[in-house]
Amino acid sequence: MFKSKSKPVVLITGTSSGVGLHTALRFAQAGYTTIATMRDTGKQDDLLAQAKALKVKVHVEKLDVQKPKSIDACVKKVIRKYGRIDVLVNNAGAGFLGGIEQTTDADLERVMGINFFGVWRMTKAVFPHMREAGAGRIISVTSIGGLIGQPFNDAYCAAKFAVEGMMEAFAPLARRLGVQVSLIEPGPINTEFVASVRATSDLAGFEPPYAEILGKYMGATTNVFAEYGQTGDDIAAIIVEAATTDTPHFRYITSDFARQVVAPKVVDPTGDSVVEAFAARLT
Ligand SMILES: NC(=O)c1ccc[n+]([C@@H]2O[C@H](COP(=O)([O-])OP(=O)(O)OC[C@H]3O[C@@H](n4cnc5c(N)ncnc54)[C@H](OP(=O)(O)O)[C@@H]3O)[C@@H](O)[C@H]2O)c1
């Protein structure tokens, strides 16, 4: 894939924990110059300790995907120092639990800002360098929530659907210009994600009739993380595969469970079976 003799460079967003942290370690092990970005570099100790234990090097840089100046500064710095970005992994993301009535404009702007505008702006900042090189890979972590709408995930699913639409529209043109675009679509992953959803969503503030319906939904879904959850490293392995194979797919649904959840979308063009399946979890 890489024409030049210098080491390929990967830039990953959101590497303070979970999928991003493991993705940085795996790219470093695969011989990449690994730019592990995070919005709060005070959180780098875990990543650096794991890199040290594996005897690999990662380069931590500050990057907040909600801040355009932070994106531009980081991308410019990397290009100045290494002259190339071969792989961009849009991983940073955050969930939020709330229906339309529980989601404030500020919540919506935050969820769209992290999960969608961040991906758009990162891609826009990095793509010209790949286009000039005539090669590159852009890999974005969405979710089965980017394919299937789920109750109380209205804003999160809207943001992940937006990434899916953007990347499906972009992929053919990017490929024409030498750049491969891929989407990673996990189901549940056991990372810091659920704790961060709980910390940012006002679950105790749900009023009737929503409190009871949310309770039913949570009851019907709590086991999925324990029974079907993947690890951050499981997803990282798939991301590195998408970056290194000669023939990357556009879409990687990451587990049998995730494929099973998404299947009705593909086989029922009316969309009714998806709505019915989730409606059943609310009673
Ligand atoms: N866990 C799941 O069940 C699941 C399922 C499907 C898809 N996903 C997707 O997988 C990706 C990785 O999530 P994860 O499971 O690894 O969760 P995680 O452990 O919570 O990691 C999320 C990462 O995103 C970072 N982040 C949040 N806002 C940011 C911002 N404005 N700028 C830069 N970084 C930011 C977080 O940094 P801080 O530490 O500073 O908050 C953290 O490093 C996300 O895109 C998520 O939507 C997760």
Structure overview:
It is a single chain. Helix content is 53%, strand content 12%. It is of the alpha/beta class and 283 residues long. Strand 5, helix 5 (154-176) and strand 6 form a beta-alpha-beta unit. Helix 1 runs parallel beside helix 2. The longest helix is centred in the middle third of the chain and has 29 residues, at 105-133. The N and C termini lie far apart (51 Å). The structure holds NADP nicotinamide-adenine-dinucleotide phosphate. NADP nicotinamide-adenine-dinucleotide phosphate is lined by residues 13-14, 16-20, 38-40, 43, 64-66, 91-94, 114, 141, 143, 186, 188-189, 191-193, 196, 232.
Distance between the terminal alpha carbons, to the nearest Å? 51 Å
CATH names the topology as Rossmann fold
Enumerate the distinct ligands. Answer: NADP nicotinamide-adenine-dinucleotide phosphate
Return the CATH class.
Alpha Beta
The radius of gyration computed from the alpha-carbon positions, rounded to a whole number of angstroms, is 19 Å
Under CATH, the homologous superfamily reads NAD(P)-binding Rossmann-like Domain
Structural class: alpha/beta
Sheet-strand content, in percent, reads 5-15%
Approximately how much helix is present in the residues?
Answer: 40-55%
Secondary-structure element order, as H and E? EHEHEHEHEHEHHHEHH
Looking across the biggest beta sheet, what order are the strands in? 3-2-1-4-5-6-7
> What does the average pLDDT come to?
96
Instruction: Tell me which CATH architecture applies here.
Output: 3-Layer(aba) Sandwich
Biggest sheet character:
7 strands, parallel
Low-confidence stretches: none
Beta strands, count? 7
Shape: globular
Indicate how many domains the architecture comprises.
1
